[in-house]
Design a protein that fits this description.
2 domains, FixH, seven-stranded antiparallel beta sheet, Immunoglobulin-like, transmembrane helix, membrane, FixH_proteobacterial, 7 strands, transmembrane, alpha+beta
Length: about 160
């Protein structure tokens, strides 16, 4: 019986190469799938300008939050409701409300709708909203003065449609 020392053969090299590239391909496919299935970033026209304005916008949002004015968005079927209240619970004095519906990724379904004033602090619009994730940017003004600028993330599959 003869024991032969085989050493590193061509078969070993083939298996090592296949294992190496198999791991790399598996990791890349996994990372690509995770990135495309979970990413919820926003689409902006100019990333440089968006980054420059971020701190200014964040400070404005903090000041608006400190004012105590709060808005509430709801969607039922084709009806888009928005209620806005002062910090004491009374309806806020607002003339115009616009809701900008944006998909988290892509802009081919984005739309804007002006809500009609039903009464002080209560607004309504009639518009189809496709199911899925939306980021709704709501701008409420009294004359030319900005009263509320709010962004709400909603999933219309979870609302009463």
């Amino acid at each position: 019986m003869s024991i032969r020392a085989q050493g590193f053969t061509g078969r070993h090299m083939l298996l090592t190469t296949v294992a190496f590239f198999g791991v790399i391909i598996t990791v890349n496919v996994t990372m690509a799938w995770l990135a495309s299935s979970t990413w919820s970033g926003l689409v902006v026209n100019d990333t440089y300008l968006a980054s420059q304005e971020f701190n200014k916008n964040a400070a404005a949002m903090k000041a608006m939050t400190a004012s105590g004015i709060a808005g509430s968005l709801s969607i039922k079927g084709r009806e888009i409701h928005y209620d806005i209240r002062n910090n004491n619970g009374s309806p806020a004095a607002v003339d115009d409300v616009t809701a900008n519906f944006k998909r988290p990724v892509g802009d081919h379904e984005d739309f804007a709708v002006a809500l009609k004033k039903l009464s002080e602090g209560h607004f309504l619009a009639d518009h189809d909203v496709a199911t899925g994730d939306w980021i709704v940017e709501i701008v409420a003004k009294r004359g030319e003065t900005l009263v509320m600028h709010q962004a709400v993330r909603i999933d219309t599959a979870e609302t009463d449609q």
